[in-house]
Amino acid sequence: MVNTMTRYDFEHNFLPSTFYSSSDLLISVLARNGIKTLTNTFFKGTGSPNPYKSDLDAEMVLNDEGITVIKITFPTPESEPLCYASFLLFEEDSDKLCFFTLERGNKDTLFIPFLCSWTKDGGHCNYGLISFDDKKIIEKCISIFKRM
């Protein structure tokens, strides 16, 4: 059984706050496939076992119109609101950033995931249900990002 609160803290607190406070460093770590090192370091600091033994990846999935999208894929979440993935959006010549999460749905939603985002000040925005189609998810993230 995974310690869901620690996994929640990593996906919903540590990653977004690090992205907003140290985006250049986080992007550099992710570009060097350092996601496994990052998770090992985080969970060692919590004293909890790292729940991400496999199925963990970070990749640049789109660079269009000056907007870069990095997708972090997590193992299938055991419960709501843990994440299937995070999408980090930024523009090269701007301070504009946005951190999105694809969160597990619940029994009431037939486990269809929610697309959400986390703001710089730790706020949470829920954009509703979305399919598991990466193309649609990325299009929705970019659409929201452009309106910010």
pLDDT < 50 stretches: none
Distance between termini?
38 Å
Rounded to the nearest angstrom, the radius of gyration is 14 Å
Question: How do the strands of the widest beta sheet line up side by side?
Answer: 1-2-3-4-5-6
The amount of beta strand, in percent, is 25-35%
How many individual β-strands?
Answer: 6
The number of distinct helices, counting runs of at least 4 residues, comes to 4
Major sheet details: 6 strands, antiparallel
Shape: globular
The chain-level mean pLDDT equals 89
> What are the secondary-structure elements, in order, as H or E?
HHHEEEEEEH
Secondary structural class? alpha+beta
Number of domains: 1
| Helix percent band | 25-40%
SSE diagram, text form:
Elements: H1 4-21, H2 23-31, H3 35-46, E1 57-64, E2 67-73, E3 83-91, E4 97-103, E5 114-118, E6 124-129, H4 134-147
Antiparallel strand pairs: 1-2, 2-3, 3-4, 4-5, 5-6
Helix pairs in contact: 1-2
Describe the structure.
With 148 residues, the protein is of the alpha+beta class. The chain has one domain (4-147). Helices cover 36% and strands 28% of the residues. It has four helices and six strands, in the order H-H-H-E-E-E-E-E-E-H. It has helices spanning 4-21, 23-31, 35-46, 134-147; strands at 57-64, 67-73, 83-91, 97-103, 114-118, 124-129. A six-stranded antiparallel beta sheet has the order 1-2-3-4-5-6, with helices on both faces. A hairpin with a 5-residue loop joins strand 3 (83-91) and strand 4 (97-103). Helix 1 packs across helix 2. The longest helix is centred in the first third of the chain and has 18 residues, at 4-21. It is globular and about 40 Å long.
